[in-house]
Target: RNase H type-1 domain-containing protein
Amino acid sequence: MPHPSERSPINLVSYYQSIEDSVSVACFTDGSKINSKIDLGFVVFQDHIETEVHQFRIRDECSVFQAELLCIAQAVNWIRTNENLSSNFLICSDSLSSLYALNCITSPNRLIVKTQTNLKFFQGRGVQVFFSFVRGHIGIYGNERADWLAKEATKQIDLVPMSVPKSFYKSTFKEHVISQWNSLYQIFHNAKSTKECFLPWTFERHPFRP
Model:
């Protein structure tokens, strides 16, 4: 893993209406979960004109947070391939948790490490990449466009390789334990009065039944 000195945190700036006028190239990224599918997409604007779109899918067991991080990483990779277009780039995301995570230069997360090493590379090339948080669904065209692309990415067949997070296995194991416990709870005839008051255990809250 690269030493923190070989990585660079993101340069986070506040988003304002005319911020895109200060850069030649702006990217809007978004990750989404639609019909149990995890998708992502980003759109590129050059001088306010849409020039490219990119869409991806990852395993359904992955999280939206992973999709958001991957989408930002893909946008940074795109900038590295097209750094000759400008010396100033802007990446906008509606995932504040992803942007905060990218500010931690000691994180072991593979996507964060890769993105930060790319940002360090840009510093040596005189290329500035700014990041900005945008609130979703408030009418910002770039964000709405990225959101639409992410949702449409459910049609993608090929998947970008991505490891399944530990949270998925924990959730699956918990569901299995609860299912087994409920089966035993229903089978045994003990605690008859308790069963009249309490429904079987689920992840959803049930109102008290008098």
